[in-house]
Design a protein that fits this description.
The complex is a heterodimer of chains A (211) and B (559). Chain A is mainly α and 211 residues long. Chain A has one domain: Four Helix Bundle (Hemerythrin (Met), subunit A) (Up-down Bundle). Chain A is 76% helix and 0% strand. Chain A has helices at residues 15-50, 52-60, 64-90, 93-123, 139-173, 182-204. In chain A, helix 4 (93-123) packs antiparallel against helix 5 (139-173). The radius of gyration of chain A is 20 Å and the shape is elongated. The mean pLDDT of chain A is 94. Chain B has 559 residues and is mainly α. Chain B is globular, with a radius of gyration of 23 Å. Classes of the chains: A mainly alpha (211), B mainly alpha (559).
């Protein structure tokens, strides 16, 4: 083990095994994350079945423009994240760093848009409580989930932005070798956060729009 | 079971470097990534929480000594049993064996240098301690009175206690559990030594593997359930609020989707420990190795599908009750397989009654009673009769305390020489093991009887006719407390004055016994190579008092 690679850590004996192991580990963690969101989505689905009219009316009150723009932003960020991960593996340092930077910026853009949307929601009386605007029964219930689910998603995204920015910073400083499994691991986490939004967008924004 | 090349040049009589002497500063412990040191850190933390949970139990048993509510107020009693439940479930039983014995032994048993992600391992301890601080804050700020179940709308709208802090503590502790689970799964997949195939793994490793799957897939659901009640209580979002069309039953579904598998999180590691103890002290291969593995896998899968049996009286559809009842019987089958296989392992064995074996035998008895009374609760008509009575309390304590805690103490004694390099005093340990069995039975058997007679749980006063049972239970609890404290005393004593253990004081099989006691920082001098299945305590034909060759038995040792 004289030619130990700088990205190799204990207890791994080869970089190839380490990459496989790290990737396997994050997949197991993502299974856990899937169950985390599945719990809330199951409750949401049951309640939507019990209160179809109220949930459709409430979903119509969400701002589809903010939601759609954010969907596009986040899907694009997954593209740049995938490119960054592949570029790091291929040793293309500049491309990897550039794409990491764009990914983090797109993530930030999502949060900024979401912030404006939250502001509009608050001013528009969409916070459950005495000032709530909609009359339909169960509309408050829908918005309870709207705030909880988009909030939890935003927390996940914030963690993702910090992780991606950290990778870009350490890659730029040269303290993190491009062969480190951290790139792929972070990418897989980022894609999951994106995927959660792919579920939230049709569940929260699209119902009740076709009529 | 393996050929480990020891360094023949090592001087005899000189203590080899061990993980304990690798660094002496506090800093060397708090920044360690050695799985063995992290196991010790966890052990210290868990001992503290075991004391806190135990003090709450003592308050409960003291209050129930007399029928009138005299020691605690009704509110104080509610807070005491909630504290007992929350601390014992999430800060002792759920992490207990995986984070201590599992952390210490899994890399040793599979011939690895360390866990797959050593820094994640350390991080999980810090997350656990953060959760512990939140729990301590909850206690100091006056506690919480919802019961460990956090049922809404009590937890979201009516409780006066620190629900947010308590739920937050459990939420954070969940991350620590998930990190440990991910780490164990990845370690067992990727760090096995050459020749250590899946069906040569010791059953303790299989227990850790199956429990990790349950931890990783069930804990996040509890996390979401707690997050939703925190959002409802803290932010006023109407998630489960019936006034807005919400449904409290959905919280119960989420809660039990975790909390029933949590019972398996507590018991699957015990299955692993008991398999190691029974084989070593009966000097026998395990009976039906492959079936033991399949039984654990079966439990970990079907265990996810039985949560509804906690909700038979909640107003759930009777068809759902029927299905959950059936599946609850189905999940009992593999547990029975395990009990039978342990018993058959004794057959023609050369049985020795060292303290770990006494704990193991006690486990088998108590677990069988706990399991069989579980079948009472799985059948809807009986469950309706005894729901929320002491019958239920007795049942789950038989599994979780009689089962899991007995196994934990048994495993701790068995591997104590490996962990510390010292032998514990055997006579005291045997006394403590027998005392624990009788103290336990003394405490919880009366609860079956009074529960069946109708004594409801979670009341601080009760009709005088139940007093005899409560006094018996409280007296038994005193014995039990002594049986828990005694090992702590002599184990601590043995750290300094215990006889030095050799590498393998039990002549046990298993890679962990092939290295020194205590093991060196990187576990093995050279990478072990494994050529045989586990538990080959003696080759076929040459077993003592065996007139004829042993029958061929599937040991998973396929060509």
């Amino acid at each position: 083990m004289s030619q130990a690679h700088p990205a190799l850590r204990e207890p791994w004996r080869s970089l190839h095994r380490q990459r496989q192991g790290a990737s396997f580990g994050i997949w197991v963690f993502l299974a856990s994350e899937v169950m985390f969101f599945a719990g809330a989505l199951m409750v949401f689905g049951m309640l939507r079945l019990q209160h179809p009219a109220g949930f459709l009316a409430a979903a119509r009150a969400t701002d589809i423009w903010f939601g759609s723009v954010n969907t596009a932003v986040l899907l694009t960020s997954s593209l740049t994240m995938a490119v960054a991960s592949q570029a790091a593996e291929a040793g293309l340092r500049r491309l990897a760093l550039r794409c990491l930077g764009i990914t983090a910026l797109l993530g930030l853009a999502f949060l900024v848009v979401k912030g404006f949307e939250y502001r509009a929601d608050i001013l528009g009386g969409l916070v459950p409580g005495p000032t709530f605007r909609l009359e339909e029964p169960a509309a408050q219930l829908f918005f309870g989930f709207y705030w909880a689910l988009t909030g939890v998603h935003a927390v996940h995204l914030t963690i993702g932005i910090v992780a991606v920015a950290g990778l870009a910073w350490r890659g730029w400083r040269g303290t993190l070798p491009l062969a480190s499994p951290a790139f792929e691991v972070t990418a897989l986490y980022w894609h999951l956060v994106d995927l959660v939004w792919v579920f939230l967008y049709p569940l929260l924004y699209l119902p009740g729009r076709s009529g | 079971m393996s050929e480990v090349a020891f360094d023949p040049t090592a001087p005899h009589g000189v203590h080899p470097p061990s993980y304990l002497t690798a660094g002496h500063t506090l800093r060397s412990w708090l920044t360690t990534t050695d799985h063995k040191r992290i196991a010790i850190l966890y052990m210290l933390a868990l001992t503290l929480f075991f004391f806190i949970g135990g003090i709450a139990a003592a308050l409960i048993r003291l209050e129930l000594f007399t029928p009138a509510g005299d020691l605690l107020t009704a509110e104080g009693y509610n807070r005491a049993f909630t504290l007992h439940g929350v601390i014992m479930v999430w800060f002792f039983l759920v992490p207990s064996i995986p984070v201590t014995l599992g952390n210490f032994l899994v890399p040793l048993m599979i011939g690895a240098e360390d866990m797959a992600f050593p820094r994640l391992n350390l991080l999980s301890w810090y997350i656990f301690m953060a959760a512990g601080l939140l729990a301590a804050f909850t206690i100091l700020a006056g506690g919480v009175e919802t019961g460990w179940t956090f049922y809404t709308p009590l937890a979201t709208a009516f409780a006066n206690g620190n629900v947010l802090a308590a739920a937050g503590a459990v939420f954070v502790a969940g991350f620590s559990s998930i990190a440990t689970g991910v780490n164990l799964i990845a370690t067992i997949h990727t760090q096995r030594a050459p020749g250590m195939t899946w069906f040569r793994l010791p059953l303790f490793v299989w227990g850790m593997y199956t429990v990790s799957i349950v931890i990783v897939l069930a804990t996040p659901v509890l996390a979401m359930a707690l997050l939703l009640i925190m959002a409802e209580r803290g932010l006023g979002l109407p998630i489960f609020d019936p006034a807005h069309g919400g449904d409290p039953l959905l919280f119960q579904h989420l809660f039990w989707f975790y909390s029933h598998p949590a019972v398996y999180i507590m018991i699957l590691p015990s299955f692993g420990v008991i398999s190691e103890l029974v084989t070593c002290f009966a000097r026998r291969r395990i009976f039906g190795y492959e079936f033991m593995v399949y039984a654990m896998a079966w439990i970990s899968i079907v265990g996810f599908l039985v949560w509804g049996h906690h909700m038979f009286v909640s107003g759930m559809s009777s068809y759902a009750s029927l299905v959950f009842s059936f599946l609850s019987f189905v999940v009992a089958v593999p547990s029975a397989i395990k009990v039978f296989n342990w018993t058959f392992t004794f057959y023609r064995g050369e049985i020795g009654f060292a303290a770990p074996m006494l704990y193991a035998i006690g486990f088998i008895g108590l677990f069988t009673v706990g399991g069989l009374t579980g079948l009472f609760l799985a059948s809807v008509p009986v469950d309706v009769h005894v729901t929320d009575t002491y019958f239920v309390v007795a049942h789950f304590h038989y599994i979780m305390v009689g089962g899991a805690v007995s196994a934990f103490y048994g495993g701790l004694h068995f591997w104590w020489p490996k962990i510390t390099g010292r032998l514990y005093p055997e006579a005291w340990a045997r006394f403590a093991a027998v005392l624990m069995f009788f103290g336990f039975a003394f405490t919880f058997t009366p609860m079956f009887l009074m529960g069946f007679l109708g004594m409801p749980r979670r009341y601080y006063s009760y009709p005088a006719e139940f007093q005899i049972w409560h006094v018996l239970a409280s007296a038994g609890a005193l014995l039990l407390a002594f049986a828990y404290l005694l090992p702590m005393a002599y184990l601590a004593w043995s750290l300094r004055w215990g006889r030095r253990a050799g590498d393998n004081p039990w002549q046990a099989t298993g890679l962990e016994w092939s290295t020194t006691s205590p093991p060196p920082p990187h576990n093995f001098a050279t990478m072990p190579r494994v050529a045989e299945g586990p538990y080959l305590y003696h080759p076929a034909e040459t077993g003592p008092q065996h007139g004829q060759p042993e029958p061929e038995q599937k040991q998973g040792d396929h060509p």
